[in-house]
Structures are given as structure tokens and as C-alpha cells.
Amino acid sequence: MAYCKKEGDNVAKKISSVAKQYLQVNVDYLGSVPKDPQVEKMVLRRQAARRENVKHISGQAWRDVTKNLIESCIQPKSYIDWNSIIKTSEETI
């Protein structure tokens, strides 16, 4: 979770940069989820993934991220061969 959209964007850029440099893969940014005190309460009550949570700011952001993920899966931009990534990382260890 991010305190603001700008923080989420910055973290996404760093993750994308590291993935590109060390894994040779592109990581698409699907969105960020703002820090929401209601989420902490709902997680403790084991109710974090409920339909009515869309009323909260973070619930709306999760909905948007999920929508972006589904849309990216319908028209994939590239294929990631995870087996070759794992093999390459094991060889460097």
C-alpha cells in the first residue's frame, strides 16, 4: 500500500527497473493501492476481501488494479518464461 499515488508510481518504477536489469523482464504497472486504516481493521477481522469493501478508497483501487490485470491478460503484451528465469537465477547462485 502507498501513502499517495506518487509514492506508488515511484515504487513501481523501481521494481520495474530492477526486474528489467536483473531478470530481463518487463513489469507492467497496474496501479497502486492507497493506505487505508479500514483495511487493517478488516484484515484483523478476516473480512478484507468482501464485496462491500469497494466503498473504501483502497477497495476501489483494488478493483481498478484487478480490472487492469484482467485487461492485460486478455491481450498479453509479452510472454514471460518463468522456467528460464528460475534456471538462470539458480545458475548465478
Q: In total, how many domains does the architecture comprise?
A: 1
Cα-atom radius of gyration:
16 Å
Class from helix and strand fractions: mainly alpha
Strand content: under 5%
SSE sequence, one letter per element: HHHH
First-residue to last-residue Cα separation: 31 Å
Average pLDDT, rounded to a whole number, is 77
Number of helices, where a helix is a run of at least 4 consecutive DSSP H or I residues:
4
Largest sheet: none
Task: Record keyword descriptors for this entry.
93 residues, mainly alpha, 4 helices, 60% helix, globular
Outline of the structure:
With 93 residues, the chain is an all-alpha fold.
What does this structure look like?
With 93 residues, this protein is mainly α. It has one domain. 60% of the residues lie in helices and 0% in strands. The protein has four helices and no strands. The chain has helices spanning 5-23, 37-44, 57-74, 82-92. The longest helix is centred in the N-terminal third of the chain and has 19 residues, at 5-23. The radius of gyration is 16 Å and the shape is globular. The chain starts with a helix and ends with a helix. The model has no long low-confidence stretch (mean pLDDT 77).
